[in-house]
Amino acid sequence: MMGLRVKFVILGMLLVLLVGLFILKLVVISQEDWVMIEEKYFPANDRKGAEGIKSGEVIDENSSDPSCSMKFDNGHTYKLDCDQYLDFKIGEKVKIVSVENNYVKLRRK
After folding, report:
1. pTM listed for this prediction
2. Is there a smaller number of Cβ atoms within 10 Å at the N or the C end of the chain?
3. 4-13: string of b/e by CB count within 10 Å (b at 16+)?
């Protein structure tokens, strides 16, 4: 009888752990959004910050090293690696894979 209770307690803990992992996975998936690129910003030569390709808007980069940025239709603007994402076009749908230290990693379909 005691062995059966122990098995039920272990089974209950495993079920709680499984539900917790499932909820955690749902939260992580919700951060990976499909978004559209609205603007691309490249470092400006004559002034501090980055200048938009389409709008000409200048945004202030909060770091000493100039980098590229993209503005998405969800309202966020993130920095990214200029060389890796150079061929991404304005109006293209991409998926935000991760955001670390305000630097974003993207992927296409």
Report:
1. 0.60
2. N
3. eeeeeeeeee
